[in-house]
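Sequence design from tokenized structure. All designs in this work follow the same two-part layout: the structure record, then the generated sequence. An example of the structure record is given first.
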């Protein structure tokens, strides 16, 4: 018995959809585990670092004007986030902040924690930049919490100039104003492939 062309196409389509669904599920699990790996305010408090240095309390959103990790973001980035979050709220999606602006001292602590966790500077560099290179220290990056928000941004973010920058960090967004007209630029595999992180 031979299989018709449409049947083969249908099977190929089903296999591709199954593969994409598996990738999406794995991404959600990785996202949830890695996104929660950043120290919370309480954890960062050891060593004198806390909210004033950019640690974000649980439940903070892009609208929290009393959280330094939010209000110290670049005004254009924060404006785009708030415009997108206002529209996303109509879909029942809130933009929680895992991390935003960070002081150089807080970034250095995160880097040292990552080196300890991953066992080398090289592996840690795939997840945490130096204070000199980090767009978080410049207030130009945000890590959005919860998978519904990152899924919403993956679909609609470019319309606000909000782009995922790294394949391995589906929560990390930066402002790319040209994306409104031209779409987001290709992502880097991880920060070690980003020319801004060199040197």
């Amino acid at each position: 018995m031979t299989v018709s062309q449409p049947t083969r196409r249908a099977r190929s389509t089903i296999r591709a959809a199954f593969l994409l669904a598996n990738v999406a599920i794995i991404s959600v699990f990785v996202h949830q585990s890695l996104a929660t790996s950043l120290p919370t305010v309480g954890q960062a408090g050891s060593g004198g670092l806390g909210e004033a240095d950019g640690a974000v309390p649980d439940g903070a959103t892009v609208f929290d004007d009393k959280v330094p990790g939010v209000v110290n973001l670049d005004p254009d980035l924060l404006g785009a986030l708030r415009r997108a979050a206002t529209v996303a709220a109509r879909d029942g999606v809130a933009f929680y902040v895992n991390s935003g602006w960070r002081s150089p001292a807080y970034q250095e602590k995160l880097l040292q924690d990552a080196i300890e966790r991953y066992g080398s500077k090289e592996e840690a560099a795939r997840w945490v930049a130096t204070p000199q290179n980090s767009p978080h220290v410049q207030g130009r990056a945000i890590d959005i919490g919860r998978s519904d928000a990152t899924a919403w941004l993956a679909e609609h973010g470019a319309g606000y100039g909000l782009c995922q920058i790294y394949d391995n960090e589906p929560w990390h967004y930066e402002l790319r104003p040209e994306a409104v007209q031209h779409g987001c630029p290709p992502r880097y595999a991880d920060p070690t492939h980003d020319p801004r992180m060199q040197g």
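The first strand starts at residue 96 and ends at 99. We note this feature because it recurs in several other targets discussed in the main text.
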